């Protein structure tokens, strides 16, 4: 009995020593990996991927866009065509328009149709917006991104309008008058039509202009790689495409970790230097981005309460 107990103690002691040896070995392995964490997270830089984010010239490397080879069903194709038609934006007559011929909100104006008319709650108010360029000439085509609203500051009430592009430099805005009292009209230019065309080009040519990143971790070792719908280069990637919707999403595969070790996801930033000098003139915050368009006449109407008979 004593011998069996002694043997059991010896066995337990050997197992404890073996466990200690494994623990120490793993500790040194982790210490080594921690030393590699910097090089692991810089793996993108070493392969010139991070450097490509700041490049403004086109690269010969093809982006990883395997999702473009997907075959759509008839229902999916019809849905895609419907969505594309819904976001279709009118094009200027010329591919490239000089800045002086682009929309100038300071010289554009709007007028209330029948400003002295009798309005009551539930009626429709019509506003005509007339766009001009920086030379003071009327625009001959549409495509400007406008925002229009009616509001009553004292009541803290407001509503947006329905904008109709007449494709000749003029826009009609329709408001439903929802409350009584003085109602003011405000119209602003968010983006001129020329800037919209630049944004459309960037959407098609540079879908990676906004890039993202994901973190991968196992134990004390972690890596961070870039993610997007398309990834440049021929590096191995992790495919996180949604199996149900088919929405594509890819991340560069970590150097030493598996794709299943991803623990977080965040926006990485914006690529810069994508605009030419001429194109950048269409995106001036104090000139033609989110600038108010003033009225050449009354900018408010009086709304009477709705009468019931």
UniProtKB/TrEMBL annotation:
Name of the protein this chain belongs to: NXPE3 protein
SUPFAM superfamilies assigned to the protein according to its UniProt record, in alphabetical order: E set domains
InterPro entries: Ig-like_fold, Ig_E-set, NXPH/NXPE
Gene for this chain: Nxpe3
């Amino acid at each position: 009995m004593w011998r069996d107990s002694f043997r059991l103690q010896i066995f337990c002691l050997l197992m404890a020593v073996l466990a200690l040896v494994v623990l120490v070995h793993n500790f040194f392995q982790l210490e080594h990996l921690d030393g590699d964490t910097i090089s692991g997270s810089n793996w993108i830089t070493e392969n010139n991927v991070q450097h490509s984010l700041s490049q403004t010239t086109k690269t010969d490397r093809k982006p990883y866009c395997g999702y473009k080879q997907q075959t759509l069903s008839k229902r999916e194709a019809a849905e895609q065509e419907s969505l594309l038609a819904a976001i279709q934006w009118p094009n200027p007559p010329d591919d490239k328009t000089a800045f002086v011929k682009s929309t100038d909100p300071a010289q554009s104006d709007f007028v209330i149709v029948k400003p002295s008319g009798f309005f009551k709650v539930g009626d429709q108010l019509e506003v005509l917006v007339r766009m001009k360029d920086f030379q003071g000439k009327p625009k001959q085509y549409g495509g400007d991104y406008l925002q229009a609203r009616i509001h009553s500051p004292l009541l803290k009430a407001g509503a947006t309008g329905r904008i109709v592009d007449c494709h000749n430099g003029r826009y009609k805005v329709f408001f439903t008058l929802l409350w009584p009292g003085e109602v003011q009209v405000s119209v602003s230019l968010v983006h001129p039509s020329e800037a919209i065309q630049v944004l459309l080009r960037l959407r098609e040519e540079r879908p990676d202009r906004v890039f993202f990143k994901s973190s991968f971790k196992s134990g004390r070792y972690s890596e961070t790689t870039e993610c997007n719908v398309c990834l440049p280069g021929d590096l191995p990637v992790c495919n996180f495409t949604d199996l149900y919707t088919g929405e594509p999403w890819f991340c560069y595969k970590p150097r030493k970790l598996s794709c299943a070790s991803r623990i977080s996801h965040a926006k990485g930033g914006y690529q810069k230097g994508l605009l030419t000098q001429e194109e950048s003139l269409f995106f001036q915050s104090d000139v033609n981005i989110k600038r108010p368009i003033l009225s050449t006449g009354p900018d408010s109407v009086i709304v009477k309460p709705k009468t019931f008979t």
